[in-house]
Amino acid sequence: MIKPKTVKHDNASFRDPSGFLFYKDCSIYRQINKIYKDDYEHLIKSGLYSRLVENQLLIPHKEASIKGPMPGKAYKVIKPDQIPFISYPYEWCFSQLKDAALTTFKIEKIAMEYEMTLKDSSAYNIQFKNGKPVLIDTLSFKKYVKGETWIAYRQACQHFIAPLALMAYRDIRLNQLFRIYLDGIPLDLASSLLPSSTSFKASLLSHIHLHSKSQKHFADRKVNVGSHKISRLSFLALIDSLESTVKNMKWRPQGTEWADYYQDTNYSEEAFEDKKEIIKQLLQETKTNKLWDLGANDGFFSRIAASQGIYTVSFDVDPAAVEKNYLRSINNNETNILPLLLDLTNPSPSIGWENKERTSLIERGPVDTVFALALIHHLAISNNLPIVKIAEFFSSICRYLIIEFVPKDDSQIQRMLSTREDIFPDYTKDAFKKEFNKYFMIKKIEKIKDSKRMLYLMKKR
Amino acid sequence: MKHFKIFLSAFGLIILFYLIAPCRIYAYLDAGTGSYIIQIIIAIAIGGAFGIKIFWRRIYGFFKNLSPKAKKNDKTKNR
Question: With contact defined as beta carbons under 8 Å apart, do A371 and A312 qualify?
């Protein structure tokens, strides 16, 4: 029998009466309730589960012999594979959201072959594992009833079609609306923000513009919705239409501030090579299984960590850099690197019900090691953050820190200061060491050849 | 533009049609009446075209499998 103290419900798993996630002894489990018994058995016995797991579309699980926290309701407890880092749609680049959408529609099409259908199509049900999007909600399936409509259609439009269309046709940064609208972007908002030219695309006209008009038209009407059935062919046509809509949406990463960063640095070839070698050496002096590379750009240095078998989350503020990083990870079949979008000066907060449903960046840490390469001057000078605040923040998210100090006479900083007053008398190497020393022990300092920059290896006190 | 108007009129007619008959949907997600209705309209409207697409895909697949290259590939796979 489980002692209640050792069990903790997952804060994001409470809406679906079919079951819920809980943690026990640092492992994640899912209780399946009795009301979901028939659907679960069909999922397993029909062969759908095996097919999806084989194709890396669904998270694998094992049936566990422990009792669930609510044994009266429980039918079974399963132990799904753990996801190394939970990420959210507002942290994904365009292609990540697009791949999540295509995965959802592919799963729905396969499920229909086994007389099952997805009962929800939340983008939050998709996570990245081994570099690929997978469905993590094993309880998302229900038996298909002949003639029924797709219950998850509205959610598919709000979670996938609307944000992707806004990113592709209006502004790539509009996926940030996910932070405000937890259940996807309202279609009336998407419809009003999209360029009017999108009304001439049949797919967007129907799935967004007319859909939003229909929602508005029927919102305050008491309608006995018709007992109309749609044929299996029409049902599949709808999924096919959603899939084609997503496939046809494209965005090319270019023209943003950081997209061509490595073509525009002040490093000589020698300095760049030396920096690579020093980072490799410093990394070997840490015990790192998981690493966050903050300000990773297109993930060049993240790949040094990933190539050493370290699971690396590669964060950057620029959607074009993250897009390039993700596309590269897909092209190279990389399994232990996860590019994500993150504004470090305003990191992902805790949001949702009770401010607990989606966890903040800090709550998803701490991590073994953080890379902060060519980053500190952007925080201290571009964003006016005192060095002590930066040190304090880093100490809250990692055990080891590999950080690059860029002195004020570096040409990058000189460029930054060329258009503003220098109000940073405390931005010095000595002040940097003094402030970081409050939170970290400085283990090593290495000067980068042919450069004024320094690399530090620090361990949290 | 003329075609666009015809398209919209057809949509209007189908919406009216679906206002008439009664039913209930059981699910833990709220599909929303407007989403339910537009889904039926779209699904019916594109169902035929999808049927033709599937038909042509099968014909294409049939002839593709008859080609010497496909047969050669099949033999390789069976080894």
Answer: no
